[in-house]
Amino acid sequence: MAEVKDYQDLMKKINDIKKEGKIDLSVDEDLSIAIMNLVSLEEHFFFTAEKTGKEEYYKFLETIREMRKEFLGMMIKQYEGEVWCISKHLLAASMRLMEVGTKMQSHGQPDLSKNMFHKSYELFKLFFSLRLNLIRLPEIKKEDVQKIDLDKPWTKEEILNKLLDCCKE
Fold first, then answer.
1. Each residue of 98-114: pLDDT tens digit?
2. What burial class does residue 109 get, using C-beta atoms within 10 Å of its C-beta: 0-12 exposed, 13-18 middle, 19+ buried?
């Protein structure tokens, strides 16, 4: 997919993605959540191996890692530099912030929870921006990650919000 330069390019690219049927974003969303959970499982098997001293947990970790690599490979086919690892860490960080937000919510800290949820979703959108080639890493600015209410109509973030609707079958 070619790099997006302006709004018209972006809308054309989105329409092309939909027409081609190459990407089913509801499947991609589900797969991305599965990848998040596989990364978490890798972490849990590591910590369990270390805490118990039982080496067999490392074998489970390797099995889970191979599965995670396979699924991430289905989503990130072509990449430059470290986009593969960046994608993995975007999903992992998104999952962790979501979990922290949930814990804060249950501890009666709704403002902190909302902030964690917001940042989790920003990372999730950033992953899909890379996945769909809507942005390239050199284009990412600090405000792209931090802002949610952008003044410009039909920002990349708003379009991603519309595309990333897992409830559409």
1. 999 999 999 999 999 99
2. middle
